[in-house]
Every structure is written in C-alpha cells, then in structure tokens.
Amino acid sequence: xxxxxxxxxxxxxxxxxxxxxxxxxxxxxxxxxxxxxxxxxxxxxxxxxxxxxxxxxxxxxxxxxxxxxxxxxxxxxxxxxxxxxxxxxx
Length: 90
Fold this sequence. Notes:
Number of domains: 1
Shape: globular
Strand content: under 5%
Strand order of the largest sheet: 1-2
Low-confidence stretches: none
Number of strands: 2
Distance between the termini: 40 Å
C-alpha cells in the first residue's frame, strides 16, 4: 500500500517469505488451524527445518512433526531433513 516506503521491494511480502527458511522451537500446537495457516503462508513443506532444541526441557522430538495432521508424508520428511539437505547442498 505504501510502495514509497520501500522502493526496492518488487514482490509481495508473502513472496519474500517463501524465499526464506525457518525453524521453530518449541513448536506450539495450541491452535491447529492457525498453525496450518502459518505453514501455508511460509510454504513449510519446502522451507521449514526441524530443530529439536535438545537438551532443553521443552525440546521437540521428531514425532512432534510426524503428528501434525495436515502434513502429508513428503512434507514431514522434508521438514525433518529434506529441506536442510537442499539448503546446505548435502
């Protein structure tokens, strides 16, 4: 709405979000609909990297990702390692 405030930006903020990578720890799953909307906005199956934050008391086991109901198996595997392999060219 105020392009003059950021003249070098040529894309929508949501487009820039999908070009970045994210981690989340601990993963808060208190509102599944909100989590699903957030994952969709950031294209989580392709941009979210699993982070456990071990050994802190509130760390997430990989099973936490596997239990997210709206993700398919490919998305879960990408989040748990595939996206990191792509990002770091492993």
